[in-house]
Amino acid sequence: MGSSITGIFNILATPFTPEGDVDHVSLSRLVDFQIKLGVAGLTALGVLGEAAKLTVDERRAVMDAVFSANNGRVNVVIGTSHKDLDTCIELSKAAQNAGANGVMIAPPPMNNPTDDDIVALYCRIAEQIDIPIVVQDFPPVNNITMTPAMLAALAETVPNCRTIKLEDPPLMQKITAIRAATDRYDILGGLGGMFLLEELKRGAAGTMTGFAFNEVLLAVYHAFKAGNEARAERIFDHFLPLIRFENQPVINLPIRKLLLQLRGAIAHPGLRQPYAPIDQGTRDEVHWILKRVGIDDPTAVINFDSF
């Protein structure tokens, strides 16, 4: 297994029991489910994984469970972002010691930081670990915008920083701007895979997202990389209603967890507070959308031969 952080990485949801405890049995099942779909790697404890709602001990336990279930089969990135920098560093060290192929870190909320402040933050983290750092560019989590110039300076200063998880729209324009500033990054998309095809055309190296039907994103990616853009377009466009519906603002994670439960990947779709619940109408729409895109049995892996 190589150390590349490219291709289609699944960001793991964190399953909970009806009582609100981490469901380690479902977590192991989810790891196996995603690997069998063919993902290039897994990312645990991201925003999608509700990492901010877990205690540090719970985060360590989730990390250990993921490594145990993975058993060296695919690359694993661990989200170690934390509002306290020292805690972020300790979690990053723990991830490295456990065998992570990288850590994903967004800067904590800061008071009007300069570009130099953000570079210095990553420098401090990189002094403590040797594995790659996936720079998470997602302003909603910290209200920090990373400019292409700052990202280029970061790449020049911190050799660990060679991958960006880009979720700062307009996505494709920012990919082009980063590419114009530096050639040192692999850029991964996100946002539920909604713009995967356009991101690939702009030079993205894949995506890192929690879409419940990862075989769709994999089929698009492999067709595109094989030079068959027309097939990639057919697959992407066919399943776009599902991709769009699942990634609704505010309720994307409850929908995603419901779909994972319907697929048999987790036992219970619950989230930890705070979250916005979905109503019965949305639950009904999930089944309507699945029917519209031709998914009669969510537990079955989609066959793309007809595309």
Helix fraction, binned, reads 40-55%
> What is the 3D form?
globular
Structural class computed from helices and strand pairing: alpha/beta
How is the main sheet built? Answer: 8 strands, parallel, barrel
Gyration radius, in Å: 18 Å
Given as residue ranges, the uncertain stretches (5+ residues, pLDDT < 50) are none
Strands side by side in the biggest sheet: 1-2-3-4-5-6-7-8
Features:
8-stranded parallel β-barrel; 307 residues; globular; 11 helices; 8 strands
How would you concisely characterize the structure shown here?
The protein is α/β, with parallel strands linked by helices and 307 residues long.
Kindly describe this structure.
The chain has 307 residues and is an alpha/beta fold. The chain contains eleven helices and eight strands. The protein has helices at residues 24-37, 56-70, 85-98, 115-126, 148-157, 171-181, 196-201, 214-225, 229-246, 252-262, 280-292, and strands at 7-11, 41-44, 75-79, 102-105, 133-137, 161-166, 186-189, 206-209. It has an eight-stranded parallel β-barrel with strand order 1-2-3-4-5-6-7-8, surrounded by five helices. β5, α5 (148-157) and β6 (161-166) form a beta-alpha-beta unit. α1 packs across α2 (56-70), α2 runs parallel beside α3 (85-98) and α4 (115-126) packs parallel to α5 (148-157). The protein is globular. The mean pLDDT is 96.
List the helices and strands and how they pair.
Layout: E1 7-11, H1 24-37, E2 41-44, H2 56-70, E3 75-79, H3 85-98, E4 102-105, H4 115-126, E5 133-137, H5 148-157, E6 161-166, H6 171-181, E7 186-189, H7 196-201, E8 206-209, H8 214-225, H9 229-246, H10 252-262, H11 280-292
Parallel strand pairs: 1-2, 1-8, 2-3, 3-4, 4-5, 5-6, 6-7, 7-8
Helix pairs in contact: 1-2, 2-3, 4-5, 5-6, 8-9, 9-11
